[in-house]
Amino acid sequence: MRILLSNDDGYFAPGLEALAGAMAGLGEVTVVAPERNRSGASHSLTLDRPLHLKRAPNGFHYVNGTPTDCVHLAVSGMLDHEPDMVLSGINWGPNMGDDTIYSGTVAAAMEGYLLGVPAIALSLASFEGKHFATAARIARALAERFRERPFGAPVLLNVNVPDIPWDELKGMRVTRLGRRHKAEPVVRQVSPRGETVYWVGAAGAAADAGEGTDFHAVDNGWASVTPLQIDLTHAGQLDRLRGWLGQ
Ligand code: MN
User: Fold this and answer.
1) Domain-by-domain residue ranges, the chain?
2) Which of 30, 135, 137, 161 has the greatest number of beta carbons closer than 10 A?
3) CA 187 to chain centre
């Protein structure tokens, strides 16, 4: 099995190292990740300059681009063979609910999915970053499952693992995305040169976090596994829109 790994935290991130370690012995592993932290890059491509592919001493490849650039470059040019699976992460921090719209971790997996490769985005659902090993074992379990039992349809999974020891994890739960409250306001500061500058504020707290959501699973000690799709069409509004436009 050929496995392509990427992330959005950068090629030096501990979560990526944990993920690569978890894949050892499972197949031929290639790592292509951004040269710096590109968290929040969403699905952006770099179109205004060339991309450089370099190799770190540990064998990981890094690119002066976005997570999407990395997977795009690897699958559609760098690799001799299409990978059997793309795994992205393990992100430092959650990617639940609305986070998935902004996430570079999800985007790297989504790029694999768009290119026809089964893909999994993996995130450790806290900013303390203590138990990457727990998320790494989930990654391994899912990769083994793919190898032994193909899913039978194109698939993009978004996985969030609570930051707890393996022994305390209850298992995996299939979930839907929840929703967050509106993000915190931007933070205004004055720079040392007297300019007013703004920091994007923190993500909002969970709003729709009821039973069945990713938030609920993670809060209750389960690894959350959500199948994602790309079509953003609001099918339920098509008729209303036709009526509104008199069609
Ligand atoms: Mn990140």
Assistant:
1) 2-178+207-244
2) 161
3) 26
Contact 109, 149 (CB under 8 A): no
Vertex 140 angle, CA 111 and 115, to 5°:
15
Cα 5 to middle of ligand 1, angstroms = 14
Tens digits of residue pLDDT in 179-215: 999 999 999 999 999 999 999 998 999 889 999 999 9
Residues 105-132, mean pLDDT to the nearest whole number: 97
The answer to whether 213 touches 177, Cβ cutoff 8 Å, is: yes
Q: Using the mean position of ligand 1's atoms as its centre, give its distance from the Cα of residue 122 in Å.
A: 10
Helix (H) or strand (E) holding 153: none
Name the 3-class secondary structure at 83: coil
Q: How far is the CA of 200 from the centre of ligand 1 (A)?
A: 15
Fold classified for 2-178+207-244:
Stationary-phase Survival Protein Sure Homolog; Chain: A, (3.40.1210)
